[in-house]
Each structure stands twice: as structure tokens, then as C-alpha cells.
From TrEMBL, chain A:
Signal sequence bounds: 1-23
Keywords from the UniProt entry: Signal
Domain DUF4399: from-to ranges: 55-145
InterPro entries the record matches: DUF4399
Pfam family, one: DUF4399
Lineage of producing organism: Bacteria, Pseudomonadati, Pseudomonadota, Alphaproteobacteria, Hyphomicrobiales
Protein name per Swiss-Prot or TrEMBL: DUF4399 domain-containing protein
Organism: Bosea thiooxidans
From TrEMBL, chain B:
InterPro entries (UniProt xref): DUF4399
Signal peptide (residue range): 1-26
A Pfam family the protein falls into: DUF4399
Organism: Bosea thiooxidans
Protein name per the record: DUF4399 domain-containing protein
This protein's UniProt keywords: Signal
Keyword NADP: no
């Protein structure tokens, strides 16, 4: 691969990004109440966990509602495994790294291979889009033994 | 910095101009595929071509010569699994699509439980790098065909004694009943056992409301038309809209599968009239706005305190945290199966389960879907209990409640108590 081509591709992507983002944001994002916080009851940062464990989720200052239910001051949980949150004005993707708890669940059983993994919680509104400002936990690291 | 800016701008402009021409080929070339060792081998564990499999099966993957790493982690000679169901190989020079036919195991999973419909299916494994792009050369298993038996279910149905029967008590075909009435079920020649308890010639009731018989060789569905009585209940308080309705009883075994032969009642027709038109032993109660019966809950639902635990000493103002297993939380007023909202009962006996939970200082409603509550209590011993309510604040059937715990509130909090 030639270097100019790579640079051009990179710049093309960079140039296209803001345009893409602007085109896809139609509805304004839901406001998050001040002091809202999502956090892990279990596991905690740095903990050693078995391969199969239950992630328990706490939420302060807001309520839980299933996906599709547009109520003020509510959202549903997303568990991000070994991944970073995407752009906050886009719906959270749905794949094996971004686990949606769209039925309003407040805990989820995950099975992970041995080793180091990161977990992060991110609240999404009825359209799976993070709030403004995003309500997310710190990114924690667990060691699956 | 200042001198760089125009250069960057120029590059940007050039890129935009070049975009329609350059992007496609450049991106394809930009995604250089990760190399894979020649010896790498991917296969299914214990699953051979042309195997007969149950509809729900656990598929295990074995990779040799490479490592499993979660998606997003670029590592040499590593990748994560993808299971291709009923589909050809995707293009190998771009990310594997993510849909029902291409299942990603980006967490680094090495097994998966999948459900297949009866018939023939193809399965193939494909390994891919951190960007979901297959390696070069691609590491994949052979494409195998499995067959899910159409006729034979996973296991034989439980047998029922020849004379076993179920019937409605004091409710005949064509009867007229009030909008809210108690329906009683009887059984003969079969033992009532709760769901989950396997016993010969045992089972539990299911009430089919306004619906045909379900398939008899599989689990009875659980929804508003198929009410489960997994605790072995023999009656239900049912709310029906005025008009004509049909009711039928069907016994299910410990796994909610009808027996062989099925034990069921006749499908009876009832006419429901508005309350007051019929003299009734059970007076109508102010409850659901048009729902039928109480909202059912899954049998494995559990509600518990994350904080505090039974017997603990807490501060006068403490945040009480709730945990809920196998159900979801929804604000009051939102009707969605398998959801409800929390109620915190402070120093109160559990209320009646067939009417809305009262709203007062002892029954704290968390109708906004909250999962924790900051509670202030006077010093002394107190009891706390959680009770889930449906969209109308009525407990589910069976009710989803936590154990009732006792906590001690110390004037100075738990630390003062310990220091003593």
C-alpha cells in the first residue's frame, strides 16, 4: 500500500465524519438530570472474577425504563465489554461488546474468557442514544481467572 | 503549528476532491488483513457433519495455533470467533457482517448456546481479527450440516395416567360471569406439583384465555393468553373485558410441556358482563385498567436487597439499593411483559397481592423506575421489604417480593455502634 493513498483515506474519513454525525442526529438528546450516576455494584475495579459472573448495576438520580419507553429522567443500561463508548450523539451499537439491557434489566450474567477485560456502563435513552451529558460509569478492569 | 495549518487544510481539500475516486480502493487496500500461521486450525468440538442435534444446543469452538482475544484488541496471531449459520462465506477482505446469520463472539467466547428451527442447517466457524476482518489466509472450519429433528422433541413427553382429567369448578359452558371473578380448577388422577419439580404423573395448571390449543409437544407459551400456575395454584382472580370469552385448562409437566396424552378440559365459552349485573361472592376490586388477571411474572424472578442486608446496622439516612433477577424495571404506567417497578415497604406487612399496593409513608412507590432510594428512619429496629408492582401497582402473579429484612438504625450510624 502506498503511503499517500493511506493518508488520503484517513483524511477522507476524517472529513466525512462530522458530516455523517450531523446527518444522523435528528432528535435532540435527552437531558440527564444533574448528579445522575450509573455505577457497578459488582464487580468493582481490579477485582478477580470467575468466568461466569453477574454484573449488578446501580443508578442514582434516574430511573430505569425499557428501550422504546420515552419517559423523562429514565434510560436503560448498556454494558460495554472491552470497548470504548462511541460518539455520544449516536445510538449505542448492538453487538457482543455492547450489551443492551433493553427490557429494563438491572443485572446481567456474562461469560468471559480468562484474562483482563474492561467493563463500562452507559445509559441510553429510548432510542439507545446516550443522554446529554452522557450518564456513564468509569471504565473498570476485571481479571477473569 | 501555524505553519502546519494551511498544509493540513490543503491536504483536507485534496482529500475531499479525491474522495469519490480514492476512497473505495484506498479503504480496501488500507484494511490490510492480519496474517495467520499456516498451521492454524479451527473446528467444532463434538459436532460432526450430518449430526442430529436438538433445537437448542451448545456449540463449542476449538482453535489451535492461534489465541482468542476480544474484538478491538489488536494482537498478533489472535482473533475472535464468528459462527455462520445458514449462510455462505462472506467476502474475506472486509469485516464480517453482524446479523442473525453471522454471530460475533467479540467478548472472546469459545462456546455459545444457539437455537435452531427444525430442519437442516449449515454451521461454519470463521476466525477474524480485532476489526472483524478474516485473517490471511482465512482461518475457518469446514461447513457442516446439522439436522434438527422435526418430529421427535428433545425428550419424551411426560406420560399421564389414562384417567387423568382437569376441569373448571362451578363454571359450565355458557355461564355468565362478572368482569372480575374467581376461576377455580380441579384435577383428578394427576398430582399437582409446582413447575420445576419432576414427578411421575404430576403437573401444574395452565389457563388458556381466548386462544386455541398451543402445540402439544413443546412448552406452553407464557403470555396474557396462557396463564401459568407454576406454584400449583388451583384458582385465579381473573379480570376480563365484557363480552364473549373462551377458557380452557391444560396441564403441563415440570417443564410446562403438555403430557402424553394431553390432560385438558373442554374449551368453554363464558359471557362476561359489567360488574353489578351479576350477584357475585367476590366483590369487584378497584384494580387493573382493562388488563386480565394479574400480570404474570417468570417463575425464576427474584427480588433482593443489595444494601442493606438482613440484621445490619445502618445510618439514619441510608441509600437502600435493590436488585432484581430475571425481570426488568419499567416506570409505572408502562405495560411490558416481565417488567415492573419497585415498592419499598417500611415497617409494613406485605399488602394484599390482588390489589394496588397502597401509597403512604410505609409503602414507598418508585414509579420512575428507580433502583435505589435514600431513606431516613428514626433510630431503632425497622423492617424493610421489596415488592414489585406492575404498571398499575398491582403485585405480579406469583408476587415478586424480597425477604423481609430487619435493620437497626443507630443514632450515629454503624461506626458508632462498632466503636462502643
Amino acid at each position: 500500500m502506498t503511503r499517500p493513498a493511506a493518508i488520503a483515506a484517513l483524511l477522507a474519513v476524517l472529513a466525512a465524519w462530522p458530516g455523517l454525525a450531523a446527518a444522523q442526529t435528528t432528535a435532540p438528546r435527552q437531558k440527564a438530570p444533574e448528579g445522575a450516576q450509573v455505577y457497578f455494584h459488582y464487580p468493582l475495579d481490579g477485582l478477580r472474577v470467575p468466568e461466569r459472573f453477574t454484573v449488578r448495576i446501580g443508578l442514582r438520580g434516574m430511573g430505569v425504563a425499557p428501550a422504546g419507553v420515552a419517559h423523562a429522567r429514565t434510560g436503560h443500561h448498556h454494558l460495554l465489554i472491552d470497548t470504548d463508548p462511541g460518539p455520544p450523539d449516536q445510538p449505542i451499537p448492538s453487538d457482543y461488546n455492547n450489551i443492551h439491557l433493553g427490557n429494563g434489566q438491572t443485572e446481567v450474567v456474562v461469560t468471559l474468557p480468562k484474562g483482563r477485560h474492561t467493563l463500562q456502563l452507559l445509559l441510553g435513552d429510548h432510542t439507545h442514544t446516550p443522554h446529554d451529558p452522557p450518564v456513564m460509569s468509569q471504565k473498570i478492569t476485571v481479571y477473569v481467572r | 503549528m501555524l505553519r502546519l495549518a494551511p498544509a493540513l487544510l490543503w491536504f483536507g481539500l485534496a482529500a475531499v476532491v479525491a474522495l469519490p475516486l480514492a476512497t473505495a480502493p484506498a479503504q480496501e487496500r488500507a484494511r490490510q488483513r492480519s496474517p495467520a500461521p499456516q498451521a492454524a486450525k479451527l473446528s467444532f468440538v463434538g459436532l460432526a457433519d450430518k449430526a442430529q442435534v436438538p433445537g437448542k444446543l451448545t456449540v463449542r469452538f476449538a482453535i489451535t495455533g492461534m489465541d482468542v482475544a476480544p474484538a478491538g484488541q489488536a494482537k498478533r496471531n489472535a482473533g475472535h470467533h464468528h459462527l455462520l449459520i445458514d449462510t455462505e462465506l462472506p467476502p474475506l477482505d472486509r469485516p464480517i457482517p453482524s446479523d442473525f446469520n453471522h454471530i460475533h463472539f467479540g467478548g472472546g467466547q469459545t462456546e455459545a448456546e444457539i437455537a435452531l428451527s427444525p430442519g437442516r442447517h449449515t454451521l461454519q466457524l470463521l476466525f477474524a481479527d480485532h476489526d472483524h476482518v478474516p485473517h490471511d489466509p482465512p482461518v475457518m472450519s469446514e461447513r457442516i450440516t446439522v439436522e434438527v429433528a422435526t418430529e421427535a422433541p428433545e425428550k419424551p413427553r411426560s406420560t399421564a395416567a389414562p384417567g387423568a382429567r382437569v376441569f373448571f369448578v362451578d363454571l359450565a359452558d355458557g355461564a355468565t360471569i362478572p368482569a372480575r371473578s374467581r376461576i377455580r380448577f380441579g384435577s383428578e388422577g394427576i398430582t399437582l406439583t409446582p413447575a420445576g419439580t419432576a414427578s411421575p404423573n404430576g403437573g401444574h395448571h395452565h389457563l388458556l384465555v381466548d386462544t386455541e390449543l398451543p402445540a402439544l409437544d413443546r412448552e406452553i407459551p407464557s403470555d396474557f393468553n396462557h396463564l401459568h400456575f407454576g406454584r400449583g395454584q388451583t384458582e385465579v382472580e381473573l379480570s376480563l373485558a365484557p363480552g364473549e370469552h373462551t377458557l380452557q385448562l391444560l396441564m403441563g409437566d415440570h417443564e410446562h410441556v403438555p403430557h402424553d396424552p394431553p390432560v385438558m378440559s373442554d374449551r368453554i365459552r363464558v359471557r362476561v358482563v359489567a360488574d353489578g349485573s351479576v350477584a357475585s361472592a367476590t366483590p369487584p376490586q378497584a384494580t387493573t385498567g382493562g388488563g386480565r388477571a394479574r400480570t404474570t411474572s417468570p417463575n425464576d424472578a427474584a427480588l433482593y436487597f443489595i444494601y442493606p442486608k438482613d440484621g445490619e446496622t445502618i445510618f439514619p439516612t441510608s441509600t437502600i439499593r435493590f436488585g432484581l433477577r430475571n425481570m426488568g424495571v419499567a416506570p409505572a404506567g408502562v405495560a411490558k411483559p416481565n417488567t415492573g417497578h419497585h415498592h419499598l415497604l417500611v415497617d409494613a406487612e406485605p399488602p394484599a397481592f390482588d390489589r394496588p399496593i397502597p401509597a403512604d409513608l410505609n409503602h414507598i412507590h418508585l414509579g420512575g423506575g428507580q433502583t435505589e432510594y435514600r431513606l431516613t428512619l428514626p433510630p431503632g429496629r425497622h423492617t424493610l421489604q421489596l415488592l414489585l408492582g406492575d404498571e398499575n401497582h398491582v403485585p405480579h402473579d406469583p408476587p415478586v417480593a424480597s425477604e423481609r429484612i430487619t435493620v437497626t438504625v443507630m443514632p450515629g450510624g454503624p461506626r458508632a455502634a462498632r466503636r462502643r
